[in-house]
Design a protein that fits this description.
Number of helices: 2
Strand content: 25-35%
Order of helices and strands: HEEEEEEEEEEEEEEH
Distance between the termini: 11 Å
Largest sheet: 9 strands, mixed
Structural class: alpha+beta
Helix content: 10-25%
Bound molecules: protoporphyrin IX containing FE
Number of strands: 14
CATH architecture of the largest domain: Sandwich
Shape: elongated
Number of domains: 2
Radius of gyration: 28 Å
Length: 291
Amino acid sequence: MKFMKHGLSRIVPNIVVGVWLTMGLLIVQPVLAEEKAPASAEPESASESNAVSAPLVKGGLPADDPTAAVWNSAPQAKFPMSPQVHWPNRILDATVKDLSVRALHDGTNVAILLEYADPTEDADDAAAIEFMVGDKKAHFAHGQPMLQVEGGPVNIWFWRNKDAKGVDMNAMGFGTLKTQEHQDVKAKGAYSNGTWKVVFTRPLETGHLEEDTQIPMGGFINIAFAVWDGKKDVSGAVKEKGSQKAVSSWWNFRAEAPPNYTGYYYAAIAVGLALGFQFVLIRNLKKGNRA
Ligand code: HEM
């Protein structure tokens, strides 16, 4: 018996150390995993990003305020814009050359802010965001069926200065553009110092799966942009309208998933278990020593 007690008093400290080491690993592992994971596609520098990352914010989204300070908490992505030369009526020189995009979501709604330089504020100035609908691949030219792309419906969120509202539209090829019956999109523009800031807001999920793009938290979806300079030329004709505009191709968009604390919960449980185990062990040991 004495020999047993002697053996145990040797082994036990090792077991306890072993348990704590395991626990240490259990605690650190999720933290390390968190640190290693690419933090929401946040780019090193905005210009290199090819993804718009929408962080989750607590409290209201700045849906009606394109100039709200909270927008600075969203990483900025920058995309080149080029004149629409693919399809008649083409334009060879569009005013807007690049576009900055920020986005935020609150777990229910998403707000996307477009910012771009336009020397003049005009009634026909306009901007739009385009998404694919469902899982069918679509070309950014209105989902027009093309050799390399099967063609699919696209959902377009459109804003024009003189209308001062968001319009929810669909297209599946040229000449098919239509305004939806149910309008889920809101939009607000603010012009100052040669810069337009236009914010579009919509629920992440709308339930209209046939017509609306659904924005799952944590998943990447495609996004494209179009901007029109509504300036009138000497003849009174609007410089950019309809097919004549600056466009982007498809880029990536992600509404960030809420932080995942599961790892910490497991670690806390493990700590609790280890403490319990150690307490029982030492108590029994003490009892054994007294006996
Ligand atoms: C190469 C790319 C594109 C081509 C060739 C193109 C072509 C056209 C054409 C031909 C029209 C006249 C209406 C029609 O036929 O449907 C049009 C209008 C329109 N397009 Fe595009 N488009 C392109 C990209 C985009 C993108 C990326 C968006 C949205 C982000 C967009 C949004 C719109 C909207 C909202 C209108 C109606 C504008 C108005 O009512 O004034 N387009 N486009």
